[in-house]
Amino acid sequence: MLRKKDINAMKTRIISAVIGLVLLFAVVLSGKYLLGIGIFILALIGVHEFYNAIGKAGYKPVRIIGYISCLPILFIGMGVTSAKVYSYISLFKSINYFSLGMYAALVFLFVMTIFLHDRYNIADIALTLFGAFYVAFLFSFVPLTRNLPNGSYFIWMVFIGAFVTDTFAYFTGVFFGKTKFLPAISANKTLEGSIGGIIGCTVMMVLYGMFINSYSPVNPDIPLYHFAILGLLNGVLSQIGDWSASAIKRYVKIKDYGKIMPGHGGVLDRFDSILFIAPVVYFYLSFVILA
Q1: What is the model's pTM?
Q2: Cα(62)–Cα(121) distance, rounded to whole angstroms?
Q3: I need a labelling partner for 13 at 20 to 30 A (CA). Which of 34, 64, 85, 91 fits?
Q4: What is the DSSP letter of 84?
Q5: Which of 60, 78, 67 is CA-nearest to residue 43?
Q6: What is the per-residue pLDDT across 208-230, written as a single tens digit (0 to 9) for each?
Q7: Distance CA 83, CA 109 (A)
Q8: In whole angstroms, what is the distance from residue 178 CA to residue 167 CA?
Q9: pLDDT digit string, tens, across residues 189-209
């Protein structure tokens, strides 16, 4: 039987999730520009949360690098690269710009360790870059997916993969969970909840595939087994994203990254799964379905 404390926590979590879903629908349905701006803001907050978290462990990241790393998300969201997403010339230019940015960032960070060696060390700059990749780089695949052909429908596969897995895992764990799973990372995770999340994600992804194949105006006619594979991948990687965020929190000894969403925590608490799912959806669509 659930305790009153657990019931209240569940109510708070559900109310917060409903409000979040309403905002999500509003932003995504408003078009790729507003989505890009929204993801850019979330990335900024996420980078800030990550740097605050590792600061609890005594590290001193060079925050400006992390914040600047979020800017490409804004440009991607405005469609700067979408028109030539399959162009090799555009790809090589993007790689060159990315390489130039990485080189400049590395030089800047090493200059900091040289001239401000009493404040910054190699661990600080390593975690600075890790935060930029972990948050800004992975978040960038959300607007990249939206910019793909028929991206207004494909983008929902990212959110289905993350939120459905989390929801099914949570409620399966609450009502049927008995076998503790990864207690050193997260004390409340159960094997039954994990399996429930994967199954729920796979089923919902197939149902969504049936919907866009039969009832959407684009009618992409994609074989349903692709949606089943994506559902399985997302169900697994969504939880890896969740466990990864939990592992970091456990290391720096914090409960949540922030308090933006009551019952859910901060941006990295709520969107940790999306960080791992968005690249998979983008790459699978680009290399398998749309190739």
Answers
A1: 0.87
A2: 10
A3: 34
A4: G
A5: 67
A6: 999 999 988 888 889 999 999 99
A7: 34
A8: 17
A9: 899 999 999 999 999 999 999
